[in-house]
Amino acid sequence: MEITPKIHEQLDQLNDKFVAINQNTSTHLEGLLWAKPITYWDYIQTDALLNLQIQRTTLPDEMVFVMYHQVNELLFKMILWEMNQLCHTEQPTTAYFTEKLGRISRYFDMLTTSFDIMKDGMEPEQYLKFRNTLTPASGFQSAQYRLIEFSSTDLINLIDNRFRATIDRNTPYEHAFEHLYWQAAGKDYQTGEKSYLILEFERKYKKTFLEYMEEYNTINLWRKFKQLPEADQKNPELVAAMRHYDVTVNITWVMGHFNAAKKYIESVPGNHEATGGSDWKKYMLPKYQKRIFFPELWTKEELDNWGE
Q1: Longest CA–CA separation in the chain, Å
Q2: CA gyration radius for the chain?
Q3: On the chain, which terminus has fewer CB atoms closer than 10 Å, C or N?
């Protein structure tokens, strides 16, 4: 094959690239002689990915449960990838903000429409057997989901509705952490005693959570929205997109999860605890916690009737 002017140009560009980082161009070109062509399975790491599904029981439908939750975690990672870029952009343009918000919303839309896979994809009899083997593990313990929440809104909006009046932006993060809404799933506020579910969750992730709470205090999605030009903040389409994300995460997603759990947990009379032993109704139902990312974008009537 003839060495065309285009190839000469590309070689010059490669040389410029490697010189800029103090590398020997000849060494890198020689390395290409021995490099294997890339394949789909090597690039996607298919073998490793498909060997991450480890059952704890002999019940076939547990595999559906494992794979579904792993898919969720991959989508959470995609959301956090976009959040990280947007929130760490010092002064995002409206176009950039809108594009990133669209990506984030589409990933969550995909999550919310997927619950039928789990809701109608397992035999209740099998689920009620293997769920006991999974105790005390719980989907409550998804750290990435918590990071998405910290990235989305001001911390006050994640505080248990009963304690918001006592907490402000000057409250120490450690104190605010103890009053996050999800503490209600496994903390006795009369005694202060925490369940094993939360104790293990905090042992693994509390340091990361506190760091994230502080890092995103002033750069979360809501704060980035407020940096946009005032006229753009009132743009009906952008406001609708923000409201859509808010409803999707805090009502549609939650209720999809709730209804899937309800089908199985209530299929046996009296057996109404989640795998981690949490008070799952008080923790999950939007009408109890009034968890709203962007309260300024909703009317008083909408806020009062949130999740109804």
Answers
A1: 81
A2: 24
A3: N
